[in-house]
Fold each of these.
Amino acid sequence: EIVLTQSPATLSLSPGERATLSCRASQNILNYLAWYQQKPGQAPRLLIYDASNRANDIPARFSGSGSGTDFTLTISRLEPEDFAVYYCQQRGNWPPITFGQGTRLEI
Amino acid sequence: QVQLVESGGGVVQPGRSLRLSCAASGFSFSSYGMYWVRQAPGKGLEWLTIISYDGEKKNYADSVKGRFTISRDNSKNTLYLQISNLRPEDTAVYYCAKDILGGSPWHFLDYWGQGTLVIVSS
């Protein structure tokens, strides 16, 4: 089973700043990685799939990069609504689909 | 617009069974693979199971294999999860979700329901 390790566990930033979140896979997963955003009491929302493709209606300030084992989600200029928990998810070697443990982005 | 609405959660005693439902609308349900994912209180996301668009193929996480059964009724646009022999560690919000790609699944989940809470307690 592929393990995804996200860092940092918590990221404290201010609106307008740039956020960089990392996800490392225990094996090569090519570009088969997605990022999700989850706000308290809400379902996860797909942001990025195939490492760098933005999902429908996702603002351009969200971008993804990486391949193989190291991946990054970048939020270019944080808006107040971006403070949430972010999860990465792999499909490179399934089953199972696995998720990272999450990064909490806080103000 | 795509809507997924789960139901069937609640408080249930250990050892009992439960069936969750997910009513889908706003897309061609019979063309998409579907998933169940759960989230224990204060914890991360755990993939449970997937069913192909036609119901022919199913896969389960090792942690639930043998106790959880996924099924679908394409005539009713509804996805199901049957859970047997419930344990306290099954306490979680259960989400249904849709694959991003029709036909053969791509294993990314582009729409999620709001979740249904299952509490296993005596």
Amino acid sequence: ETGVTQSPTHLIKTRGQQVTLRCSSQSGHNTVSWYQQALGQGPQFIFQYYREEENGRGNFPPRFSGLQFPNYSSELNVNALELDDSALYLCASSFKGGEETQYFGPGTRLLVL
Amino acid sequence: GNSVTQMEGPVTLSEEAFLTINCTYTATGYPSLFWYVQYPGEGLQLLLKATKADDKGSNKGFEATYRKETTSFHLEKGSVQVSDSAVYFCALYPNTGNQFYFGTGTSLTVIP
């Protein structure tokens, strides 16, 4: 059984650019959630994907978007990057109906200059 | 609404000292409560959880009891080790909805 993996581990972008972060869910899991963790803060829910559709969204603007693929892997896309987007982005996978039990990946650390 | 408030850090303890990290919550309905741990450079790992009032979650010597009357879920360990040094997050998952609500985290450093 493989755990949740994310790529890349680190990324540096400049303001205004676009970024794509990737997540492979744990084997057998069909739901993926994304969280943003700013430095010194707790993770904040961005959105969740199930059956390739967005299934709930936190308080994030539309320039944060996502995809889920038939193999349940997922992407997080952020357009028009701002300095405040600098954070650790965490992906978590779970079974639909069992979202209380989420397995987190190691995260992608994004720095926006 | 849903929110979690946890004790400000950082916390520094000597090895074998007693640990308490306070956590209180606000929630609609009856949430499940969690403690997650984050080691340097890593993602979140589930430490323990409790799904209803008066439940006690425990793992690796850590314990927390779901107290509905005080809306609290304080984390305790009787004797900390250097390897317990990490950031600890209290979180809730509401019985309706599909997201976790995390506290801001408490950094723990245990010195030999």
